[in-house]
Write a structure and sequence with these properties.
- By secondary structure, this protein is α+β, with helices and mostly antiparallel strands.
- It has 9 helices and 22 strands.
- The relative contact order is 0.08.
Length: about 450
């Protein structure tokens, strides 16, 4: 019996269809059937595998596509919500700016779970930064001030006095008028050394001005322009500034500064109120409180206006405070703090400067009593008489050592600058009223006396 037949009979071997060498054996019919089925099995197995792979890839693609769509949908929804809120906020902000109030924008947001969220966005209105209307309205009440004076350099090695005629620029605000004059407020340091003053109005016409009154401790001055010096056209273009209330200012409030910056003519700058009641000591040693602003205040702006957005004067700018030593910090005298002083200065007589060799002489040696000294020693602020010249004007008027001069012809005297500034307008031989205080029984009592100014000794 052959090896095959034995296997077929099952007499030997473990598999009836396997040769001893391990190869399968089939009958002729079985082989024929297998030949027909084999390709079909192979084809069926490959198709199934491809179908399985395609199905998996489809599922993966669907999964990732779904995740991507969800992410894009969420992002787009959030973007649309944000844009919707921004657009709504802008519309309400515009309305709020017009009404200058705090507005609220309500927004309803729906989440994927169906939850509704109510949000409120507060929009604080800020005043418009467009100041064209403010500038146009107030410019007719602004003036440029030019001071002409002699600057002394000292003496040469040969004993000759060296001096030069120079000018300086400042600003002013027309704050009042009388039947005969327009009254202009400026800084005292703008006019204190002036031998002559000129004022330029909004229509570029220029006329001479004179001082009515000054207050060095507050750095204020009132100057006057005679109406008959102006043409009808110029008078028709002049306006009186509107005075505001500086006590109502708030931090961050928008303000406008106008002045004759650098002497180039009127210019406009804007800023905010950076600080209120800022205590500052000036170059002259006076300590006062000021409005601090980041609106540019440059040389020439001194005496100009600090305005609120209604075009009202709420401060008088002063470049002397800080000057070029600081950047982004300007100061203005709060208008409400000095209204009484300005009213007093405007009511005084207009002064006409006299020639230097004609200036009157009181005949005293003196000591200035500053505000700090007055507070420390409980003394009046003014001019302390250390000594009187025998036979001089003060001596003849009955003034003695220890008296403190506090007034000159109705004008307040607080410093040496005040006294010197006033004397420039009174010639020798003029009789004036001196207000002084004298210590009696430990307290100071106020007196007045008539004094006829003498002539300054040649050596002085």
């Amino acid at each position: 019996m052959s090896e095959y037949e034995q296997n077929r009979d099952g007499s030997s071997g473990s598999n009836p269809y396997i040769y001893s060498n391990g190869s399968p054996y089939y009958s002729q019919n079985e082989a024929s059937n297998l030949q027909q089925q084999a390709p079909q099995k192979k084809h069926s197995s490959g198709t199934f595998r491809k179908l399985l792979i395609s199905t998996c890839m489809g599922l993966c693609f669907g999964l990732f596509a779904g995740i991507g769509y969800y992410a894009v949908d969420q992002a787009t929804g959030a973007l649309n919500t944000t844009l919707g809120r921004t657009e709504g906020a802008e519309e309400i902000a515009e309305e709020a700016v017009e009404s200058s109030e705090v507005a609220e924008a309500d927004h309803t947001l729906s989440t994927e779970s169906g939850t509704t969220l109510q949000t409120t966005q507060k929009i604080v209105a800020t005043a418009s930064t467009d100041v064209t209307e403010v500038a146009e309205a107030v410019m007719p009440s602004m003036v440029a001030v030019t001071e002409y004076y002699t600057y002394d350099y000292g003496y040469s090695m040969f004993g000759q006095k060296i001096s030069e005629d120079v000018s300086a620029a400042g600003s002013g605000i027309i704050i009042g008028e009388t039947d005969d004059e327009y009254l202009i407020v400026t800084n005292n340091h703008v006019v204190t050394d002036a031998e002559s003053l000129e004022v330029t109005f909004a229509d570029d016409s220029t006329v001479e001005a004179n001082i009515k009154g000054t207050d060095s401790s507050k750095d204020l001055a009132i100057i006057a322009v005679a109406k008959d010096e102006l043409s009808s056209a110029t008078k028709g273009k002049i306006a009186i500034a509107t005075i505001g209330d500086s006590s109502l200012l708030k931090l961050g409030e928008n303000v406008v500064a106008i002045g004759n910056a650098l002497g180039y003519g009127q210019s406009v700058t804007t800023g905010i109120v950076s600080a209120l009641n800022r205590e500052v000591t000036t170059e002259d040693g006076y300590t006062n409180t000021f409005i601090q602003t980041d609106a540019a205040i440059n040389p020439g702006n001194s005496g100009g206006a600090l305005l609120n957005m209604a075009g009202q004067v709420i401060g008088i700018n002063s470049n002397k405070i800080g000057g070029s030593s600081v950047e982004g910090m300007g100061y203005a005298i709060p208008i409400s703090d000095v209204l009484d002083i300005l009213d007093d200065l405007m009511s005084q007589d207009t002064l006409i400067r006299v020639a230097e060799d004609e200036i009157g002489y009181i005949g005293i040696s003196l000591q200035e009593i500053t505000a700090e000294m007055a507070q420390t020693f409980d003394m009046p602020q003014g001019i302390y008489i250390k000594e009187t010249v025998d036979g001089g004007a003060a001596d003849q008027a009955g003034l003695v050592r220890g008296d403190i001069i506090t007034g000159f012809n109705g004008r307040t005297i607080r410093s040496y600058d005040d006294l010197q500034g006033i004397l420039q307008y009174y010639a020798a031989g003029t009789t004036v009223t001196i207000t002084y205080q004298r210590q009696e029984s430990g307290t100071y009592v106020e007196y007045t006396t008539q004094l006829t100014l003498g002539r300054r000794p040649a050596q002085q």
